[in-house]
UniProtKB/TrEMBL annotation:
Keywords: Isoprene biosynthesis, Lyase
InterPro entries registered for this protein in UniProt: PMDh-S-like, PMDh-S-like_dom, PMDh_S
Active site feature: 62 (proton acceptor)
Subunit structure: Heterodimer composed of a large subunit (PMDh-L) and a small subunit (PMDh-S).
Organism taxonomic ancestry: Archaea, Methanobacteriati, Methanobacteriota, Methanomada group, Methanobacteria
Protein name per the record: Phosphomevalonate dehydratase small subunit
Organism: Methanothermobacter marburgensis (strain ATCC BAA-927 / DSM 2133 / JCM 14651 / NBRC 100331 / OCM 82 / Marburg)
Catalysed conversion reaction: (R)-5-phosphomevalonate = (2E)-3-methyl-5-phosphooxypent-2-enoate + H2O
Superkingdom of origin: Archaea
Pathway, per record: Isoprenoid biosynthesis; isopentenyl diphosphate biosynthesis via mevalonate pathway
Domain Phosphomevalonate dehydratase small subunit-like intervals: 24-103
Assigned protein family: Belongs to the AcnX type II small subunit family.
């Protein structure tokens, strides 16, 4: 299956999906040293996004979250790619700075199609998600 989407940060990435229908704050919500969600109120609490395709509706919180994403890239703990329903500036800026492929506005409801651990390719050059 191939799903069209909007390109935010160019590149290609693939891996197992880690998905949540709740927005995520990277500042205080994610440990940049491990890539693990540390916000105890978030459904992904205790799970690592390192090397995975992160699927979320969008981000929330402080603009410093962009730098957390950048630090994750430097630490080798960043997601392989990010898919958002609607990207907002915090995650978009972080993905661009970190060189993480990112897309948004998929033409299908990914929360109805994707599930944890499903292998997905994000082609943020052609604007496609391949399941």
């Amino acid at each position: 299956m191939e799903i069209s989407c909007r390109i935010i940060s160019r590149g290609r990435g693939k891996g197992p999906v880690i998905i949540s229908d709740k927005p995520l704050s990277f500042l205080g919500g994610v440990d940049p040293g491990t890539g693990t969600v540390i916000d105890p109120r978030h459904p992904l609490h205790g799970r690592s996004m390192s090397g995975k395709v992160l699927v979320i509706p969008g981000g929330k919180g402080s603009t410093v979250g962009s730098y957390v994403i950048f630090q994750m890239s430097k630490n080798g703990t960043a997601p392989a790619a990010i898919i958002c329903s609607n990207a907002e500036p915090i995650i978009a800026t972080g993905a661009i700075m970190a060189g993480i492929p990112m897309v948004d506005r998929p033409e299908a409801d990914l929360f109805q199609i994707l599930e944890d651990s499903l292998e997905v390719e994000v082609d943020a050059v052609e604007g496609k998600i391949r399941v």
